[in-house]
Amino acid sequence: MKKFEEKTTHTTPIFDGKIVKLQVDDVILPNGKAAKREIIKHPGAVAVIAITNEGKLVLVEQYRKALERSIIEIPAGKLEQGEEPIVTARRELEEETGYGAHEFTFLQAFATSPGFADEIIHIFVAKDLYQIEEKADLDEDEFVELLEVSLEEAQEMVANERIYDAKTAFAIIWFAMQQAK
Amino acid sequence: MKKFEEKTTHTTPIFDGKIVKLQVDDVILPNGKAAKREIIKHPGAVAVIAITNEGKLVLVEQYRKALERSIIEIPAGKLEQGEEPIVTARRELEEETGYGAHEFTFLQAFATSPGFADEIIHIFVAKDLYQIEEKADLDEDEFVELLEVSLEEAQEMVANERIYDAKTAFAIIWFAMQQAK
């Protein structure tokens, strides 16, 4: 896990934002030479595979400024400081979809962009859903539209790139494989 | 594709690095209110599922400073300015593994972190491999170790999180599903 370790000799903080921080680390490479690494610090995030009592997968469409387009994803959101991922998962599912879930199970975690960012996404599966009576508010800068599709439709949407983000594509395919076992 | 579009009124460049750029966009939300978006600009990347003539998947282990650990990935690298992804795929496979391939096919593309970055990864499948006689040099700050595993072993490594990054996990599972059809 530490093979080819790069030791930090100095960290230069560049930006401290609402979502990300950026720093440049001076490092010593395994061959003793010096190099610089540009690193995005992100608090981490959760994403939720929510299955309705009719067996449909709950998706949300939202505008992603970085891509300058709207995309279709599973409900997701970033961790607040010191928050357990399961807590974030419950909150984001409620806020983005109006669903609560009696059953939450952890599925998998992964790094999204290890070449430049430390973001880890924790995937949960939510079942035994119920409608929240007083739907929690979205963040004030968030606008989403719900879709409910079958797992077969979702896999088709991965194949034709209507689903276009790594967490959603991986989560759908991985979950479908586990179900098929 | 433009649902809930956020119009940019001003862009503040923050950082222009070797790998990433960071900017903060002032936007107008669909409800007319103003907000800020922190955006990482990345040139995009390729990743290669390379299958040896013995049917093994070629993996590389390397240190990822952002995660402060070494991880096991499929060969990958970022696009140079204006470069076609297939060209990057050939170069990165050769540099990181010493393999060339007579057959390259495009598999899928996806966004890795649409919440804050524009990075798109293009996945290719490389078959009919051959050893490069004079192995191309790695970038001078790159150190990698090769592994060759069966597709079954690779899927097991996703399940137990020895494979821990989105592109590799998705590519392995997606490729395995296509093969099984």
TrEMBL record, chains A, B:
The keyword Hydrolase applies. The keyword Iron does not apply. Gene3D superfamilies: Nucleoside Triphosphate Pyrophosphohydrolase. Keywords: Hydrolase. Residues 40-171 form the Nudix hydrolase domain. SUPFAM superfamilies: Nudix (SSF55811). Pfam families: NUDIX. Its cofactor is Mg(2+). PANTHER family: NUDIX HYDROLASE DOMAIN-CONTAINING PROTEIN, UDP/ADP-SUGAR PYROPHOSPHATASE. This is ADP-ribose pyrophosphatase. The lineage of its organism: Bacteria, Bacillati, Bacillota, Bacilli, Bacillales.
